[in-house]
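Request: When convenient, would you put together a sequence paired with its structure tokens?
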Amino acid sequence: MNYWLMKSEPDTFSIDDLKRKGKEAWDGVRNYQARNFMRDGMRVGDKVFFYHSNCAVPGIAGIASVATAAYPDPSQFDPKSDYFDAGAKREDPRWMLVDVKFVRKLKRVISLEELKGIEELADMALVRKGNRLSVMPVSKPHWDYILTLE
């Protein structure tokens, strides 16, 4: 099993939205490294930290799991979508996504500020300066440690 962190802006799609829907396609990823993580690394059943970004208190808000193998993101083919990519071809899609399934909300949001202050997490991709990826791997030791913070 692998562990991941996926970022979403809560005013666009929050952990509460995922809880209400149960399962959702993680569309709109337009970074090649993040796409590669979904396409090449994610497997059904992998665990995901659901992270609220670009908000008053960015942080880990819940847990989801990967519900499907990667498949082409349909928004890349839709000229009306904000995520349209004129260079993407149906026979050779450029952008992939996975569906994620709600597992649970955390007892509290574990803020980025708090995570940055923890020595045991100093080498975690999320807390490193300049890291803007919306999808990133999380090591099992980091996963386990973060869960103790609830």
Observations:
- The CA atoms of residues 88 and 94 lie 5 Å apart.
- The domain at 3-144 is CATH 3.10.590.10 (ph1033 like fold).
